[in-house]
Design goal:
heterotetramer; A: alpha+beta; Sufe protein. Chain: A; three-stranded antiparallel beta sheet; B: alpha/beta; Aspartate Aminotransferase, domain 2; 2 domains; binds pyridoxal-5'-phosphate; binds FE2/S2 (inorganic) cluster
């Protein structure tokens, strides 16, 4: 049911972990299944220099998280915010219909992390 | 890569001897059992021999066995047929919160038709208590339906006691024996069942065939209408190859049930003990000893089960998280929830169910690969680091 | 002794290519389509490919095909499911007096639940007229169920016309295509059917599998409850080997339908003409040309049909009297009665239904042995001498 | 479904026909299925000297008729009247349950023929 890309990112996920001195951190739960992802960011000159994730979730959630972090790394915050869950699914060569909600998780967590970074910067 | 199938509660391969018998009725002997000519008579004879075998397998008479297309149909037939036939006696049905959807959803549909259903709670081992059944009975109660063995956690219910109580109180008793049939003794007189459901593909017969035991004289109405087959209890041209296979599978299961069951208990315990020893933060779900010989259900803290099933699959091991029948989106098992297992652990449960084809080497292989897999997923998990 | 099977309307042998495909899913590929692991995915893929084939075979979309255990189940599902879903629109159902018991008895059971059913008469050829359908419609009519081809006499009904009328009047239309499927073109759009039933064993797939077409969006409710399979329209672990076989059988039927149908028409006419020529006091039942390519039904005055079936059987020819599904004691066919065939002739009717395996030699053999058989039985008959 | 004896009597029925100058004739219809049998008798000194049947009916009806005539021939009328349909079925090595009613036909027709004979004799 999963594409080879999904299996690759599930088996060898990129950017797993947590950045110790992150500039922004976001953690979200999936409203549909309750699975959770945490994303932490390092930002320099408005560009995502480093990004890491941790996921309690299904195979699709883990693969999406891995793919999203790959896609976001090196992008400006504005560019990164434009990444949709469809983009993530497409880059993974698709997800089964009942698994589309899983790709929200990573994007949502990154949004939350960028929000968190912006809030921190706004308040500083 | 080693191929290991540990999902026998979802379905089993067809036993080679069963397959051979069945294939004789696919490549030949194709008559319609209702036909008068020799083709028809050959088919009818084979079907009646199979009925005899199935009836012996559950301690019933052949005329008490009705062939169906599987466990779901048997459950629907038993519950609706008993409910409709006894409407004038009352409208109350007792079942448990941990039944298969085939029972639960049938009961829910009856609720919409004016029946009232009590879904009994279970204890932390998944067990229904006799007392709770007794307490739930009222003078409108017409049917009790409690499964013999649970498909998700393997707990074996006290069905002989519940059956006796039902009989004493003049209430019909149905038991879903889909998981127990062919693996542990199933006897309609010991259980005092009026209706008992079995499904072929759970014990080495093919998919698409099952049976319902209907005690002679039990008030019951057919829920399907047509050409009169199965003495009007389940019309439709009979699935002769499937029925022949079902008969053979019952026969084979009885032949070495004791030995096979001890063998499976040993493998099962090797898994449970091995995993508990090697992998911390692990919990056994279900009853410690009133459990199916082939049934393991373990929760691994911090891990979502589906990702573990996928990891195992990629290493050649077929397992499942909760029931294979549940829809993909339903994450935390209603069975584990009913047992009071915390949501996080309920979502972390892996079901490994053994069968005839499994060997000690299969278990060794599992115990070799599982710890690293669990560790890897935990290191990736957003809920792990907090505790580490 | 020559073995000739002339009872293809009762059931057919499994096509060798279908058997081969199916056996691959009995001796291997045994996964449960609901399972996430590779065994499950293989099974699901095979099942969805079969669904595609069946849907192409009736001109539908794959999501409009629900697999069942056979024609009786499909008929029950269509009629009850439509009736229950449209209860608030009305309670009137129109069907014909010559439907199969799977339709008739389902309608009768609905009458007990407050539905009102019109059983339309037929003409002497077994045909339902469009006018009678139009006349029977009232503002409570929610469903029309008219079979595509009759199983006893082979008459092909004007279902495209009836379907169009139903559509115009906003009434659901079901057709039982159990006898026509695989033998003459069946297209849900041409027929304008909302529901269409098929049964595998009538066209070289095995017993125990069938399908119901449910038009996308047609108001309908499932009549079985369980684990969510078939998108909740027909729960229960799917009969994967049977489903694979059904897909293959549809594919094979489409591949040479035209040629095979002409071949059968030729053999059929050889029988009809040969018998009429050689045996006096013989009558053809059913429509002279709006009849199934493989279908012969003849009444031999002064002879009770079962004794003729038995005589043929003893000479290696399998045939039937009336429907194989009727119970043994029901002597004069309700179909022939509805056609106005006199009781004596109705009890004298022999059904010969041809199939892929039949050859011209089979027909020759029949024409060689039948006259003497009929003569012998007539000389024994208490009703013969009066006329002789 | 039929025993070899049934098949034998169906294939080679004994005593088929009608006795031209019969002493008694009986024809009955089966109340269950509507099939009919006609039996004609020749009686001498209260003994059935000859008996023949004609049947419009199923294989079991034909075989039962054949068997019954065999059993009745040479018996006194009183003995013949004691033959039950179970006796006929037993002599045929049994009949399928749904075919038991078929064995009534021949015995009933013979009863009617004997009745007919007695009536004739009483009135002469
Ligand atoms: C306990 C129980 N009951 C009923 C069923 C339904 O059986 P089937 O899928 O054969 O219809 C199952 C199988 O999933 C089961 O485990
Ligand atoms: C017209 C028709 N409808 C329905 C059926 C029932 O099909 P099945 O016996 O496969 O359930 C039959 C077969 O006997 C039939 O001929
Ligand atoms: S199921 Fe929850 S993220 Fe996939
Ligand atoms: S069915 Fe009428 S005598 Fe046998």
């Amino acid at each position: 049911m999963y594409s080879e890309k999904v299996i690759d990112h599930f088996t060898n996920p990129r950017n797993v972990g947590e950045i110790a001195d992150a500039d922004g951190v976001g953690e979200v739960g999936n409203p549909i299944c309750g699975d959770t992802t945490k994303v932490s960011l390092k930002v320099e000159n408005n560009v995502i220099k480093d990004i890491k994730f941790k996921t309690f979730g299904c195979g699709a959630a883990i693969a999406s998280s891995s793919m999203l972090t790959e896609m976001a790394k090196g992008k400006t915050l504005e560019e990164a915010l434009k990444i949709t869950n469809e983009d993530v699914a497409n880059m993974l060569d698709g997800l089964p219909p009942q698994k589309m909600h899983c790709s929200n998780l990573a994007a949502d967590a990154m949004h939350a992390a960028i929000e968190n970074y912006k809030n921190k910067n706004a308040s500083s | 890569m080693r191929e290991v199938y540990f999902d026998h509660s979802a379905t089993t391969p067809v036993h080679p001897v069963v397959a051979e018998e069945m294939i004789r009725y696919i490549t030949g002997n194709f008559g319609n059992p209702s036909s008068m000519h020799s083709y028809g008579r050959t088919a009818r004879k084979a079907m009646e021999e199979a009925r005899e075998k199935v009836s012996l397998g559950v301690g019933a008479g052949p005329e008490e066995i009705v062939f169906t297309a599987g466990g779901t149909e048997s459950d629907n037939m038993a519950i609706k047929g008993a409910a409709y036939a006894n409407r004038n006696q009352g409208n109350h049905i007792i079942t448990s919160a941990v039944e298969h959807h085939a029972v639960l959803d049938t009961c829910k549909s009856l609720e919409k038709e004016g029946f009232s259903v009590t879904y009994l709670p279970v204890d932390r081992f998944g067990m229904v208590s006799l007392e709770s059944v007794a307490d739930a009975i009222n003078d409108k109660t017409i049917l009790i339906s409690i499964m013999h063995a649970n498909n998700e956690v393997g707990t074996i219910m006290p069905v002989p006691e519940i059956g006796r109580l039902a009989r004493e109180r003049g209430i019909l008793f149905h038991t879903d024996a889909v998981q127990s049939m062919g693996k542990i003794p199933v006897d309609v007189d010991e259980i005092q069942a009026d209706f008992l459901s079995v499904s072929g593909h759970k014990f080495y017969a093919p998919k698409g065939v099952g049976a319902l035991y209907i005690r002679q004289g039990a008030p019951w109405l057919p829920i399907r209408h047509g050409g009169g087959q199965e003495r009007n209890r389940r019309p439709g041209t009979e699935n002769v190859p499937g029925i022949v296979a079902l008969g053979k599978a019952v026969e084979l299961a009885l032949a070495d049930m004791k030995e096979e069951s001890s063998r499976l208990v040993r493998l099962r315990n090797m898994i449970i003990n091995g995993v508990m020893e090697k992998i911390p933060h692990t919990h056994l779900n279900g009853h410690p000893d009133k459990r199916m010989p082939n049934h393991v259900n373990l929760s691994f803290e911090f891990i979502e089960a589906e990702s573990l099933v996928l990891s195992l699959d990629l290493e050649g091991v077929a397992a499942s998280s909760g029931s294979a029948c549940s829809s993909g989106s339903e994450k935390s098992s209603y069975v584990l929830s009913a047992m009071g297992v915390p949501k996080e652990l309920a979502r972390s449960s892996l079901r490994l169910t053994l069968g005839r084809d499994n060997t000690e080497e299969d278990v060794d292989y599992l115990l070799e690969i599982l710890p690293a897999m669990v560790e890897r997923l935990r290191l990736m998990s957003s809920s792990y680091k907090d505790k580490h």
